[in-house]
Amino acid sequence: MKRSLLALCFAPALFAGFAIVQTVAPASAAANCVKGEHKPPYKLGWANIYSVPTWMKETTGTIEAMADELKKQGLVDKLTITDAQGNATTQIQQIQSMIDAKLDAIIVDAGSATALDRVIADACAHGIAVANFDSLVDTKDLTTKIDTDQTLWGKQAADWRVAQLGGKGKIIALNGPAGVSVSDDRRKGAEPVFKANPGIVILAETNTPYNAAPAQEAVTNLLFSNPDIDGVWSQGGALTAGAVTAFEKQGRKLVPMTGENYRPFLEMWKAKKLTAWGTQQPNWLAAFAVYASVKALQGADIPAYIDVPLPIITNDNLDSYLARAKDFATDGYIYSTYDTKLFDDLIARSLKK
Questions:
Q1: Which of 230, 254, 266, 325 is deepest in the core (most CB within 10 A)?
Q2: What's the pTM?
Q3: Residue-wise burial string across 133-146, b where 16 or more C-beta atoms lie within 10 A, e elsewhere
Q4: Could you state, in chain order, the average pLDDT of each consecutive group of 10 residues for the chain (353 residues)?
Q5: Residue 24 confidence (pLDDT)
Q6: Could you tell me the residue range of the domain that residue 259 belongs to?
């Protein structure tokens, strides 16, 4: 997303939100992991699993923009960014380097639900605020996890898929990478729905990166061996865009599909009059992780888990997303607007649970 629009989204709220945070003494830390001396400006680390997909580029953009605003207020000294290039072992080593560098907070989007547990627990033991978003780790030895309900994501997409087909039809399922919690949890959420509706037959499933090109290749292979497909249950917008392209290149009739807020998919939805349903994993979960980490370092009470409601995309609000398309990359994700008032409200709501 363009940096100017990011500033418009949250800059005014940052000053108001952090005025409250700065009144809390660091010694009164209420959040998990935070202990010892943490004085602003803080040193932050963003341990990224990979940077190539556009979703990750936009996500990193929200982190950088938030950190830039906090630098202006004297709350952040520097932001260290690493890229594990999809390798969980590399990500572990990079997080360990952040611990050794005595950073104040580490932001993590995990490449594995289990492999990072030990190093994250070690960061927590060293008094570092650790905020995990999107792809979550299993360990509870961290400051906070921030995410939408991924199992609900899968369930709602499956509910729509079943209802739209009237409980009977042949479908293919497009998943993200195996072993990544986002993909695994979405699939787990869908499974009870499909089991309860035996008339829905899953012909085949794929596991690919959340990119259109590999999804297109995988779906093309499935089309050769499955002449009759009534629908697609896809758990990613780029995956769905790849599926649409594969269907068209093979001269196949487009079928109803689920997807996400991936700009090309939303534009295909509108232009081709697709029967579709979508939701999103907001990129600003990353900015939220930065915000929550700094609040934790300032002594605020941050819940162990912060639940972010899933925004749903249907024909009724599709145009409202496309109206903002120009502010995003041509292969970007048109995520919902946000500000720090929203973050504060979500923190407060989660603390009450």
A1: 266
A2: 0.83
A3: bbbbbebebbbbbb
A4: 36 37 49 94 96 89 97 97 96 98 97 95 98 95 97 97 97 93 94 98 95 96 97 96 98 97 97 97 97 97 96 96 95 93 97 91
A5: 41
A6: 150-279
Contact at 8 Å (CB) between 182 and 134? yes
- Alpha-carbon distance values, 324 to 107, 237, 263, 318 (Å): 28, 17, 10, 11
47/105 same-domain check:
yes
Packed helices 54-72 and 3-21: angle between N→C axes, nearest 10 degrees: 50
- Split into its structural domains, the chain has a count of 2
For residues 218 and 74, membership in a common domain is answered with no
Q: Residue 202 has what pLDDT?
A: 98
Residues 40 and 103 in one domain: yes
- The CATH number of the domain holding residue 238 is 3.40.50.2300
Residue 320 lies in a domain: no
The backbone torsions φ and ψ at residue 258, rounded to the nearest 5 degrees and listed phi first, read: -100, 160
**How far is C-alpha 307 from the geometric centre of its chain's CA atoms?**
12
CA–CA distance, 261 with 83 (Å, rounded to integer): 24
Residues 266 and 229 in one domain: yes
Residue 203 sits at the vertex; the CA angle it makes with 199 and 206, to the nearest 5 degrees, is: 130
